Predict the 3D structure of the following.
Amino acid sequence: MKRKSAEICLILGFFLSFIRHVSTLSITVNELECVYENVLSEGDTISGNFVIMDQEIFWPNDHLGLEFTVTSSQGNIVHSLKGTSGDKFEFKAPGRGIYQFCFKNPSSTPEAVSFYIHVGHIPNEKDLAKDEHLNPISVKIAELRQALASVTAEQRYLKARESQHRYSYTLLLS
């Protein structure tokens, strides 16, 4: 009985050790706003999404949208988008360190942005406990955790988009 309890505690502790960092923010982008996130290991999965929540005026056809740029701790741009009202992203960190997530608003209208980010880590087998029965389970748990984070990010993105559309619809009716 003690061995089974110890195994459960080990698996639970192992599972919780993969939860690196999750952030959900609401920011107002006037000109340039940046958010910083520490990535502890090369190869960590960085995923997230953003969407403009409310627009004081409807965007005309020539509206430039937001620019979104992710810069690694080495100063390299690892992801960028231009002219968007929201999107999802996911990539492997090319290195460890502080990553910079910047929103640039080329228009004069401030934009409220809902921003979600998740940094996750799936260990390789050499980093796991050496018990042969726990290694495959631990890897699967880490993969499931990453998949769950991806599904959660997708749900947040869809909810924010739905809220954005609902807001636009109510403005049309008024």
